[in-house]
Structures
1.
Amino acid sequence: MKKVAIVGAGQSRYGDFPEKGIKELFLESYQDMVKSVDKGMDSRRIGAAYVGNLGSGGFQLGNMSALVSEFVGLPYIHTVRVENACASGGYALISACMDVLSGAHDVVLAGGVEKMTDVSGVKQKYWLGVSGDTEYERLAGTTFAGLYALIAHRHMHEFGTTREHLSAVAVKNHKNGAQNPKAQFQKEITLEKAVKSPYVAYPLNLFDCCSTTDGASSVLVCDAELAKEFTDTPIYIAGFGSSSDYLAIHDRINTVTLEGTKRAAANAYDMAGLSAKDIQLAEVHDCFTIAELLACEDLGFCEKGKAGQFVEDGHTQIDGDRPVNASGGLKSKGHPIGATGTGQAYEMFNQLRGTVDKPARQVRDAEIGLIHNVGGSGGTVSVSILRR
Amino acid sequence: MTKLSIGISGYGVAVPRLRIKKDEYAKAWGSFQASGVSEKAVMGFDEDILTFASKVSKRALASVPLEPGKVTRFALASTSAPYVEKVLSGTIVSSIGMPDGAFVSDHTTSSRAGTEALMAGVEHVLANPSGCALVAAADAPKASMWSSLEHGLGAGAAGFVLSHDDLVAEFEGHATYVCEHFGERFRPRDDELIRDLNVKKYAQSSFIGATVKAARSLLEKIGTKQEDYAHVVIQQPDARLPRAIARKLGFTDTHLASSSIAGELGDLGAASTLVGLAAALDAAKMGDRILVISYGSGAASDAMSFKIVGERKADPGLRSEVDRKQYIDYIQYLKLKGAIK
Amino acid sequence: MAHVSVPMYWRTIPQRYRMVGQRCRKCDAVNFPPKGVCKYCNASFEFDEVKLSGKGKVHTFVLIGAGGAPPEFAEQEKAGGMYPVAIVELEEGPKVIGQIADVNPKDVKMDMPVSTELRKVYSEEGVIRYGFKFIPEELSR
């Protein structure tokens, strides 16, 4: 069977950029990707592009992938906008892999872009609140913070997860993000500050939530057979998996488990012939601090209900035995919805090649890493395992 | 042939949880203009007359108990409906699960609408031996915050099941007085807020005149006397005016005691006499007679007579609804009333 | 605003006004809100209508505070302050999300018994959308 390799990856800066729209942001990540291809790349080799995007405030809902593709010099290709809410990027990467595996195209671009700061606060909440179950969850008066708070509260109730456990995730991710020159918030925070920040949706407070972000990311994948034409140090996609779940949390079997994560991971581990214990580092979807705890449990890094302690004990620190979100995660790096998944791939590509831009963030000698991208409150989940 | 008796088979009441004290008005405006009202009920942000009509309808049916599917007639009364054009009863029929073939009517143009709806129910049951009517009155009248008329406006609701069976109170008869009278409490088309030209004596003379005439005409018609009544329920725009009317009719404060609700709940508009009737039913003993006298500006008054023939009471009773409360300040009140645009 | 059109909302009236659910003809489990295929056995799309009691207990809840409310509920939050939203486990089995009204947010507890009543949910295009909300059980009767 064919294998897929990543031979280049780029990311725009994440943050608020009034001077840039989706075209300019996508171009920034694309150019960064081109620069990363060690042996150079002729854009005419790219036969397809999968672009993750939620909606960018309603601008160019139709044909947006053709727009951003032609803007970066990729007209006349197979191009598709991939939309699975916050997991759009992760699914764009999987779509690109499936394309290569099918033999349809041998060099494919997977990317994502989101422009969130152009619109009013009210419209932002519109775009953020419509990827859960609209009819019931939204009309009960919740946004995503509210939905994750429902999960967090039950997690605290069932397992004794504490306020400090949640805040420990925020503190760690801000510490890592402070070392990431492309992160939205490059600033450490204290546990005290994180614990005492105002509630947005009790039990979640302001520092439990990621921000709204502009940004883009691009990853170049190809048939592994061709990888050496682009670089001597490709990173291989060892496995990938994805799974949907009931959209509304109230419909799910278990409130405190993202079944989508468990199943997506199981598929990815199976394809890679690996298990959770083989994963040396991970970029997981921490749109809210509770989401990182769920990810640690549902990906199998620790037992169900024990993630709070797992994080507090330092396992997930960069110098821990299982670094999680060395990039700063969505929490500190930022969460440009459609770009997040391929942004995680960008980080993992560099981590595994040892080319992270600041040594303080580099996880040493890692061979196998996992990236995990969640749409909405778990309605869609993608997992990919990358290997040196 | 013996006349089939009809009347009230069950009833329910509901009062919103929020209250504002008259002191809050005194702080905000320097004075409080509703006589005898010490505090009043206020609907919450997610409540309106339809949610309350739904609630009291459900409670009235449960008190019998009666399946909603048995209802053949529904009448709704309010002066503060959320829509000026739309069949309001549709919301209640659908939320309660009443038959879609029930005849419905919405009574919305004056504070007399409560007895108007109650009489619609009575007439239906009188005309249909197997008929069963559900009547709900819910109101939360609105006036300009600048108007002293606004001070007394409260909120509340009551629902009644009328039928031939399982009677709590037998209907004994009614009388109406209607005349042309304008410029008191009124609301022109396109205006959300009620107005009052504040020609006090002119307005009061109509109020007192119409209610007294309707009541006297009823007593004469059915052959009852003042001493036959243990409870007298009179429209309560405030806590003072009903006493003047009662005195004119030869009743005392004792007769009004069981149904005096304005002091704690405010002016309940179209729900005033029906919530008052529910309060009287809560207190009444077997054999007691209740006289109900409504008033609606414009003007008309209905008088109705009931006699207690059953022991069943509303659950919850009005007292427990009145006692369950949470106070708000005037700023919160303005927000809830939508007075801050 | 999350645009739920008037017809879309209207189609859910039986659920929102009267808690009408589906009993699966194959496995007898109750689905609420309704599904295309029974979510318990995933094998049948034949149902009988069943009216739920509206009673249940709080499975988990959140208190939506300043800045946490979506635009169509922002006014409610501003006028009435923080509001609780819960996932309630209904006595017939299914769980469903809804606001808890008539309660001091501080008094909401896990496993608290609640029941439903009709409330204004929100307004859009001048049309008030009514639907069930939960209230503490002791206030229902």
2.
Amino acid sequence: MGSLISQIATVTVMNIRSLPRRLWMSLAMVLASAVVVAILLAFLAMAKGFETTMSSAGSDRVAMLMREGAAAELNSVVTRDQVNLVEDLPGIASDKDGPVVSPELYVIVDGIKKSTGTEANIPLRGLDSRGMALRGNVQLTRGRSFTPGTNELIVGEGVLREFDGFDVGSEVRFGKNTWRVVGAFSTGGNVFESELWADAKVIQSHYNRGSSFQTIRVQLQKPGDLQPLQQGIDADPRLNLDVQTEKAYFTSQGKQLQYMAIFGRVISFIMALGALAGALNTMYTSVADRAREIATLRALGFSNFSAFCGTIAEALVLAIAGGLLGSAAAFLFFDGLNASTLGGSFTQVVFRFEMSPELFVQGAMLALVIGFVSGFFPAWRAARLPVIVAFRQTT
Amino acid sequence: MSEEVLFQLKGVSKSFVKGKEEISIFDDLDMTINRGEFLAIMGPSGSGKTTLLNMLGGVDQPTGGEIWFNGERIDRFKESQLTRWRAHNIGFIFQFYNLMPMLNAARNVELPLLLTNLSKAQRRANVETALTLVGLNDRAKHMPSEMSGGQQQRVAIARAIVSDPQLILCDEPTGDLDRKTADEILEMLQLLNQDHGKTIVMVTHDPAAASYAKKTVHLDKGKFVQREVAA
Amino acid sequence: MNDLYLIYKNMTRKPLRLFLTCFAIFIAFLIYGAVTTLKSAMDSGIDLAADNRLMVVNRINFTVPLPIAYFRKVAAMDGVKNVTHANWFGGYYQDPKKQLVVMAVDPESYLRVYPEVVVDPQQKQAWLRDRQGMLVGEKLAKLYGWKIGDKIPVSSNIFSHKDGGHTWDFVIDGIFTGNTEQYDTGYMVFHYKYFQETQTFGGDNIGWLVLTTEDPSLNEQVAKKIDETFANSAFETDTSTEKAFSKAFIEQVGNIGLIIFGVVFMAFFTILVVVGNTMALAVRERTGEIAVLKTLGFSSPRIFKMVLGESLLIALIGGLAGLGAAHLLIEGAKAAMAQFLPNLVMGGDIVAQAVGFMLLLGLVTGLLPAFNALRLNIVTAFNRGGA
């Protein structure tokens, strides 16, 4: 057995040493593997980043109430009376100021995108200090919060990254109203960072909303438990509201991008097939190139298993090199890349591509699979090469 | 047969530069080959016999001197002229047959006819004649990989004669074959020379092969060392 | 036998390699064809916009409404030929996931502003007279199998009906077609008056105005006039050409589209590089054979053409098959995607571009080996080959 291992080692070392001699062939194999890994990682990083943005936005502790049938915040309307009725419903957590209920407004304004210089939709959310408290993770990163009753607003970090003209201290104009940006906030990278926040009452008056709101968020006594709330709503015909956890809402809003991620996966899978064909081809050619060399070794007494292992090892080395190259390229180009797209309610969602360690593990595994698949069949051929080839003329 | 001159080499030299050294293969070589001759060129490895054959075939060109073929000076030809000249006048037979592996025997033989204006029917007739001559008509559809070395070499001979060239150049035509097969091939060359009037120049280091030729010359270090006429 | 036969034999001598090469090229062009078609479908709204049509939306954002009074005011302005208004209904049919493009419009002026909408005069009259009537695009009608006279319930995810619920009943009075094939008929329109009378809120608001100018040269002047007129009012306007509006809307999909296309094209070219490299190197194995052909008297240009012809042929076989498959794929997906991407058609320009890339691939991969074959010295070739 010892001799078999040393045989394999000898053949492997020989094959790998001869790689530079087959420079272009080797590079093609590396490139094929690199492109598959890079594409996969790019799409995974996109999906991952979007997932982080959407999923961390929705909390299980928070329930969202919207008018029946309104699929998105933008479409919903709730009246002041309904807000008052909701405050008395069961199942809502309370603090020292009473039940934690946040009636909110949601309008869309235009901003200029840095990347294209064109107008794009940004949500402007009207809320009060209770609404901010309800979103446990709000942190002011610059400036201060808006003063209720004034034309002041604070801007999400995502908006700052993707749009022009929202720096703290500057003035922005929506319609005939001028707003002052007094602070910037972070919510841990989730979708709320793609928003502008201002006092709900000010927005009511500027946008002719009277005393109405669009959504009500409440903090649940028991996370995820909508039962008592739902029963209360069903019992009162004046409350024609749908209730769902905020998490469920954002998950449904993220559907579109999930389609994009699926699309990306399908494309990268098909592309991977193409690249795999290229890699297989390269390995076959490489074996054909060395047919004589392999046969000579066999004639000297090396086993066909060692010829097989040597070829597999060569493919693996090249594929892993490609995997590293692809991962590095994906990391360089995509990690932290800011992206934005149209979210559920016609507004821009800003998110970052995220390249996490487990993605690299996936990339490495893919590289190994490519190496194995593209090495196996040619290696099989190498192992079955008749010894007589060594004594024949070049083919 | 009248002593008509086919090839004439006048003061031919050939040298090439390797590293800083200039290596001379021939210097001032004179040679005459008559029409209808069967000439064997013998010599040890590195004596320049293959280079000489290549120059006769217009594949390699001399660095000095003149090569005349049928009253034409071919060493001054441009590459395209040489190519055309080869197609019309020369048939080649190599040590390792050099058949196209993806073509069957008949197609391999037909290959040089692609360079002519013959009609399809004429081509087919020529191929059949050539294959019959080498005794392989029943193997027309076989691939090179399905034939023995001797059969492959006979296909190569058929390919060399199919366009009816005046001169056949052979580079160690039996070098890869066993004695019995080699004798068959050599008899076939003899037949082509005697019955079909082909001029044949054959490079070999095998005296037994050379014995089939009408005339043998010995080349050593770029010089003819002695001339002898076969019995 | 001729040169083409030799090319064919050369190509097919290693069927597995030929298959793998063609397959990789096939995949590359399949993706290329499908993705470029998708991209051009997304951009097509811009190309179809009429030159003299302007959109007037609320300055804050196009989702913020305007007062109905603007309709008369704009209609009275110089240079304005026709003007109409529309409201987004947020419609769906039975299932909230089956969203429909439904708008409440001013019927007569709508048909004047959109001459693309072609409707039988009798159906048109019926619709104009019937307040509860709906005019449905041919594509939408086909999708759901609706016929004239059908009574269909359409729900809104924005508005509530006065009588409770979110569902309105409509009667299909007419089915319209487009004046060109490209015009998207995947939507439906109904009377604004009916909408206004039956919904619970929203008052006298309209979503946006669409107008045509007397002449495209007046566009800028008219747009400026409108925006100036309403400046400093509670509802400021933003007027732009239909083209600019569509473009801005598409760009909202964001750089994510750009990133995906970027990645796909990168992959496309890398696959071509990998395949091209193998194709180019494959010819190297045939050095000896090329030398034999040359010795036999085949001229260098002739061999050059044969080598180049082979790689062009492989590129075209794989590429055209891939493009064909992309075409089938798109035809298959057309129905499912019709709602989002009405113009999913592989245009001649896409095909031409793809064929251009195939030729380029064939040339680039063929040229180097062909050139090497051209320059090949028979003597050195044989020395290398050991003969």
3.
Amino acid sequence: MQRIETAMIEKAKALLSSGEVTRVLGWKKGELGYDVEPCVFKSEESLKDFCYNVFCGANLSKYLVEESKKEGKILVFLKPCDSYSFNQLIKEHRINKENVYTVGVECQGKVDPYKLKENGIEMVDSAVETVDTVTVKGKEFKKEEIILGKCLTCTKKPLSYDDIISFNEKREPVLDRFETVKKLEAMTADERYAFWKDQLSNCIRCNACRNVCPACTCTKCVFDNDNSGIASKANSDSFEEKLFHIIRAFHVAGRCTDCGECSRVCPQHIPLHLLNRKFISDIDRLYGEYQAGEDTDSKGPLTNYTTGDVDPSDVFGGNN
Amino acid sequence: MQEMNNEKRPLIVAFCCNWCSYAGADLAGSSRLSYPADVKIIRVPCSCRVNPMFILKAFQRGADGVIICGCHPGDCHYTTGNYYARRRMSLLFSMLDYLGIERERTRVEWVSAAEGAKFSAVMNDFASKVAALGENKRLEDLRCKE
């Protein structure tokens, strides 16, 4: 898997030296191998810190909202799931496509450092990847055991690139992405309430889920209003965390590509993607299957309607 | 919350569109049709003016049930507003149900300006269902309680 990193660096160097791009958006090694962070590289020399490995889970598309407004073209590497977010942002006119050179890169699933931690492995500096396994500190893991939740259900295919670097076929998803949503739907209202109360009470309102979400690109967010009473977490009550998470998910309903970044970055491990997936599954069920980000010109389900749409009272099967 | 004969009365917020449902409520009144005084009407230009945040905020401030009334699909004063509202509310109410909030606390009804009788019947029915559920505990905000 070292091969792909080398090919990406070569590509970046070639484009930088030819002057076609002035910057490169990619992933940078942290202090340790698994502290990978998104970074804009401005010169060929700075690319020595560039990396692409099993820890590069971060979605780079959102950075382009700011970066594509600047002078000069930027090269960006997009994994299959990132390319859906990229397309969606193009559709919403948030990215200036003329200023972006996209290169698709293969992805065989990215490792979740928290899952490694559960297996007693920390302070990881490097990992050896094959198509089905990852070896960390001499211990071999099956991909299913340690990859991110979003990768277990990934069905994304690479979309609309200027160029593509790929040596291996994509892995098939291990799980059905609506499995947990269906399980929750089958519970009673009391059980669901208990489940979500338990989960959402862990929320510390760090806003990481909002900040990382490629669909959340408002310059002024409703939750940044200090007078709203919901700009931060109050100790006295659990209302504002419910409101925050309902509204956060609602504001991206129909635009969420299911990239799973919200759950990946949550420091409290709240399964936030389950809220987004509920909207996706409802949209699929009520208004026909829809994958946000699959194209750049279709109308989203919430900016569209048909005269025969189901009535809100019939959404639960008429027993409301 | 009002106390009446030592019995808690539910508080119901009804968002009514200016062109149909608000006029329907008016007709119910001028036709001397009764509906519970627990229903507080908020007039909005169109059912699609109702932001999901309004509904959650109503619950936060002590509402036990929220109902949205608009023109019948196809009859919107702005041609298509209620079609968009219909999709949004379907998704939002389904989400509230997913979080375990009782589904009888939310409702959408289409009431035209000529349907005073329907308005009164809908409000009577909704108020009795919400009263049967009791106080809204799952979406309350203790900071807003007296």
4.
Amino acid sequence: MRHGAGFRVVRAVLLGLFALYFFLPLISMANFSVQGKGPLEGEITFHYYAELVRNEDLRSAIVSSLLLAAFTVLLMVVLLVPTMIWVRLRTPGLSRTVEFLCLLPLTVPPLVIVVGITNVYTWVNYLLGDSPQVLVFAYVVLVLPYSYRSIDSALSAIDVTTLAEAARSLGAGWTTVITRIVMPNIVSGVLGAAFIAIALVLGEYVFASLLHYDTMPVALAAIYKSETSTAIAGAFASIVLISLLLLGLSFFNRSKAPDVGGQKA
Amino acid sequence: MTTTPVRPPTAAGLAVELTDLTRVYGSVKALDGLTLHLAPGELVALLGPSGCGKTTALRILAGLDQPTSGRVEVGGKDLTRVPANKRDMGMVFQAYSLFPHLTVLENVAFGLKLRGKDAGARRKVAQEKLELVGLSEHGSRYASQLSGGQQQRVALARALAIEPSVLLLDEPLSALDAKVRVQLRDEIRRVQIEVGTTTLFVTHDQEEALAVADRVGVMNAGRLEQLAPPAELYSAPATKFVGEFVGLSNRLPATVQGGTASVLGRDVPALDGSTSGPGFALVRPEAVSVVADADGGATVTAVMFLGPLSRVTCLLADGTDVVAQLASSDALRLQPGQAVRLEVEPSPVLVVAG
């Protein structure tokens, strides 16, 4: 469809305004994080990025957060994907209940959840130790609504029942149906769920802070009080990392999403 | 009811025996005591309106659904409680069912891989089956790169690759357009005769069923109304439902006495199952002839040209509409409003109560 010059101007102005709105704070952060302070005054430096790695507390918090993200993704995939496939194939009557349960965390403010689970975490710490990795249980609940939506859309894009029945008639057991037929066709949805989970976990502050675990956002907040530039460098680096992850996801979706439509007969 | 198979058994096919199958969903009886025998190598089509239980019967035979009661036997073995993946049956579905992430060749070889065949053997068999359905050049394509007809051909090749004991076809042509449907219908029949696999074909399209099957079973409300070769089903319907569901029938006033029905003033044999006394004879349009006669007691109301044949609609004095199918050369001599006499052929008719 061809558009007039007026339309193109309005489009360019709107896009420009949006770009300004989104990128101006990022550019400011990037600029602030490379401006030398104190003895480095006036210099453009990556000193504060190096500091992210040199600061032992921050380094261990970053490692904790990355491990937490990985474990959250792993547990979410192991729990959610087979459950959702099973509900679709064998107990479709339960799909509403599962959807309700998965979306429930969206309706409860994180602060309320933290207050509710504080006592539970006393026991978790007693049984499993007080490593930040125990946050994985709370984080799986936290990411559930977003992960559910992503996987549900992927499952809706294919005729899971017919594919499963076709595979069964050819001799496939249920494990084969799930791992070799359904999973390869919902990879983009599972990856989407995984990346959203990573983004949420890397930015989560309320749970970790109130339950007294040192994760990256908690450490950055602490450093911000004394070393502002290092904290801004850490925040900017995490934004870039998460953006790259989501960008990678959108490219992956575009190139790999299975086209189940087929041409007309 | 005719139950004798019309084709001799083949080596590849196994006999199928469904005995007194019942399937109840809540308060709905989808199958109500279905008993059906398929001879080795035979192709039986189950025909009926939506909700008559034909797909339920096929799914129970496939193991994708469990009967509430009854028994499923294939080759003399009881498979009633055997899961679908252990039944060794090939199935083609109504919906496109190729695995989107696999190529055509990988789709066809999928069942062989599950059976532990090595890569070389898988490739050879898959290629053979693709040749059988005329798609040997499409092995490296994905489902999304094929037309609907091609996808169903590949699905047929995939079902045949595992050398199934029974081939199950669940309305495989209903998503296709008319021309492709006829082509693929003929191809399915050719391939089925070639491989000799016992086949159950479920369809709601009577032309399809009559064209491909050795025998056609007409189902209604979970029960098998009649199972017979296509010609017999058409010419000698056993029940009112079959007479009215298969093909087009006129309902003409008739009286049955001693095995003979009097229809339009002519005596014709009454089929078994006919009511006695007054009723309605189910008479095919091609069994009615129309003769120009000023005192014939009927009037032509419409002439519909259909190519080599035409349909002539007439109105009897008692208000009954009668459709006759005539050669177009005869039909086009008739004009709406013309007085005519209707005669029925002396072939047997089913007479049903009003």
